Amino acid sequence: MIIMSSTYSQIYIQVVFAVKGRENLIQKTWKDELFKYISGIITSKNHKAIIVNGVSDHVHCFIGLKPNMAISDLVRDIKNNSSKFINEKKFIQGKFQWQEGYGVFSYAHSQIENVYNYILNQESHHQKKTFKKEYIEFLNEFEIDYKQEYLFDWME
First-to-last CA distance in the chain? Predict the structure, then answer.
């Protein structure tokens, strides 16, 4: 009898990315359809889409990551396929694109509920805090060195 070993993991990440030019293009009328589509991309890559949500200019994806794929490849696939989806559906006039780059932050199992609720409540959260302030707080909280000039294009 041959016994096969398996890989076990517990990796939770939050990925944050923005609309090109930080334009407010993600509309309430179709954002749920977009977020379900993004969840489907994550699931089709054999990861767990815990929650996908956002506001008009950026998206948060909370993912149970399997170690079978580089995060950069997963984010590339999410952004490429979702922008193609938006353009094929003609949700906006002109061509939709995501900005280059993204933020990715890791969490412990004990933090799942807090992160889930944070992402779930994006609309009310952003009535009090701008995306720029939120994103820079993430970078500082996770002690990530960054250069201001390489962050997203901010709409002030």
Answer: 65
**Is 82 in contact with 30 (CB distance < 8 Å)?**
no
Let me know: does 85 contact 37? Beta carbons within 8 Å: yes
Residue 56: HSE in the Cβ half-sphere, 13 Å Cα cutoff: 12
**For residue range 70-118, what is the model confidence (pLDDT) as tens digits?**
999 999 999 999 999 999 999 999 999 999 999 999 999 999 999 999 9
Instruction: Burial-class residue 72 by CB neighbours within 10 Å (0-12, 13-18, 19+).
Output: exposed
pLDDT in tens, 27-50: 999 999 999 999 999 999 999 999
What domains lie within the chain, and their CATH numbers? Answer: 11-111 (3.30.70.1290)
115: CB partners within 8 A, 6+ apart = 12, 14, 50, 62, 107
Q: H helices of 27-143, where?
A: 31-44, 71-89, 112-120, 122-125, 131-141
Our measurement of the distance from residue 56's CA atom to the centroid of its chain's CA atoms, rounded to an integer in Å, reads 13
Cα distance between residue 74 and residue 61, in whole Å: 11
